[in-house]
Amino acid sequence: MGTTAYEHWIRDFQAARRERAERGDPEWRTGVPLQPAIRRSVQRFQVGEDGDGAELITKAEAAGDVEYASAVRMFVAEERNHARLLALLLASGGAPVIASHWSDRVFVTLRRALGLRLELLVLMIAEVVALRYYRALRDGADDALTREVAGRILADEERHVPFHCHRLRRALRPLPPPVRVLVTSGWRAALAAVALVVAVDHGPALRRLGVGRGRFVAEVVRSSGPVAATMR
Fold it and tell me: For the whole prediction, is pTM greater than 0.85?
């Protein structure tokens, strides 16, 4: 019997879940207060990770592919775990989570207003930006606990991007090639704009982590080329 379209991804998510259970949580007692700029930055990303994913799950179920919907539920569970890890990281340093941030409200509003294909394109903007952010946090944070939490989240995000690319490639396949190029080019332009906004909003933290605003934007844009090619 051949492998179904999402069987590989389901196995991947299940393996990651087992690994998390066996590994357990980081040692939160080793936490130290985060530098103020990094604390504010982590608080904003924690809000972004904290959505319940109900809209995405509903749209995935409506698409009629039971295995894809199952994989999406596992993806959402990992995103919720990211929010939990970041909240506990903040708490370990004596910092609270925040209720909301304007950037998250914009993304949520856009995603809820769109169909599955366009929602995934918007989601992929956040995912690709997150890849560079968590890499900066893993490599540049002063304390070991922050580096560990960022590394765990980054490892998940590095699996999430190919998962969504797989779905988008199937979703864009019926479009004529010039239209696919137009869609992915537009996606890259939107990603560049969002990366610039994030660089401005999180600039003090990025500098503290050793990544300037310009470098952050340039590296996000550069990384988007292979992602767009995969989607096409």
Answer: yes
